[in-house]
Amino acid sequence: MKASFFLNPGPPDVITYGDIPEPICRPNEVKVRVGAVSVNPIDTYIRNGANYWPLPKPYVIGCDVAGTIVELGSEVRSMHVGQRVWGTNQGLMGRQGTFSEYACIDPQWLYPSPDSVSDRELAAISLVGITAHIGLFSRAQLKPNDSVFVRGGTGGVGAMVLQMAKAIGASVITTAGSPEKATRCRDLGADHVIEYNNESVGDRLKVLAPNGVDVFWETLRMPDFDLAIASMAERGRMVVMAGRDARPSFPVGPFYVKGCSLHGFAMFKEPPEQQNTAASDINHWLRTGKLRAQIDRVLPLSQSAEAHRLQEANTVQQLNTLSGKIVLEP
Ligand SMILES: NC(=O)c1ccc[n+]([C@@H]2O[C@H](COP(=O)([O-])OP(=O)(O)OC[C@H]3O[C@@H](n4cnc5c(N)ncnc54)[C@H](OP(=O)(O)O)[C@@H]3O)[C@@H](O)[C@H]2O)c1
Nearest 5 degrees, angle CA 40-CA 44-CA 48? Predict the structure, then answer.
């Protein structure tokens, strides 16, 4: 089968698009004919040699997947051949990735695809959607009348946080790097958009939320805790989930006096039951039109190296040319 894989980590050029043997289902796995996949920043960190865990060789890149089950392992009872499914969390913790024509996956990481939603959309939503759900509901305990600030309302995670917060009735302030992206944020339901290239986020937050926001979600790899804590309400909850090497200073006094809390997590370490709960809500919001995928472009799987270059240029070098996810199709 065709797949995008590498033998040794390195720059995007190490990704080969070529033939590898089709995977064989273990008894507790299903074989999925892949319809679409999408790129996440973590894919580029792993490819660069982050060395978080040992990788299979060859290592098929990618975490996200949407497709159709074509074969069941002998022990699988919960799914059927022909069923459309989506999921994430592959290519992580030693598992093989998804950028291939077929992938064998434990059904604990797969969810039924709503009929009305395409594989492209589901692939674009998977990792970022589950991340947003875990942060908002399991960590920050978001309530309907809360206010949320999220950095980057058209970003992978940011667009999910924005829409999920609106779906339960919270108010949302977000940021955008251009007027076009600001318009997109408003289309997604943002109550206020700060165009961070033209105005100060801190100054605008003082005006838009004079008593502070209940949830402050930082997507940048270098959190600004002074800004965040100054912008939070009493008992505000801050979510951090990026920047492994970040060592910013932390204003202890204002943080504890306000009774704030800080929540960090890595989605791939969340138990499958927790991710399943997130997927159920995501499916419900997809069916009811409250959650929409944000897709910047769709590429053939053969352009995986180019997709990595583009993702890296955005998340790491902050080129900020993307407005939504990069989706690829085998
Ligand atoms: N812990 C976890 O479980 C987890 C899960 C998923 C992702 N992550 C991490 O979270 C981070 C974000 O992931 P992502 O997929 O959302 O990335 P992304 O799609 O590249 O989004 C990055 C966002 O940052 C915004 N941005 C960039 N520079 C900015 C600046 N100077 N000021 C304000 N906003 C700026 C961009 O906004 P504009 O386009 O408007 O400029 C964009 O919306 C990555 O580091 C990723 O590794 C962690």
Answer: 165
